[in-house]
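Changelog note: in this version the structure field was regenerated for every chain. One regenerated record is shown below for reference.
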Amino acid sequence: ALGRYQESLGYLQQARSMALAMDDSSRAAWTDVYMGRNLAARGDHAGAVRALRRAVQFWPGDIPLYWLGRELGMLGDMAAAREVEQELAARAVAEPTKRNRISLNKLRGSLAFAEGDFEAAARFLETCPLDLDARLLLGRTYIALGRPEAGRAEFRFVIKNRFHSFIDSMAGVWPLAYYRLGVLAHETGDVAT
């Protein structure tokens, strides 16, 4: 329900209640992840952190850890975000999967971006070439580095590959790529974006 936050939160709360009634902690964790993302999209980062902490309690996996660390960084609580980063790094060592490594590098890139270290952000995000969320932030990073054409290319990549996987098509990342292209066109005066 793009832009219909209250309605989608209601559905997510129903899904969470059903998952808990069925003793399905994995589904409860996923609903909390999406609830956190929904709350963050409407600017309620403190609410997002609460939902994401619940998700981590149910499933301390790479995805809830990534989103929790990212939201903590958005709130400026870098100490707590770095603790999540350490937890995710330990997980990546204990379980050296590609997904754990990508989530860790996305989080490191997000935190570097939040701290204004755009060179470091680019280095981490460039290691996630097929992750649309990472590519969206990489586009913003390139713009911050004074490379608007590279940023534009990242946004176009996200739009072109928005149906690469089921998760990517549902994630709400690609509408943000359209938005970022619009912002870039406005700032540069290049309407052919």
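Spot check on this record: The chain has a mean pLDDT of 87. DSSP finds eleven helices and no strands in the chain.
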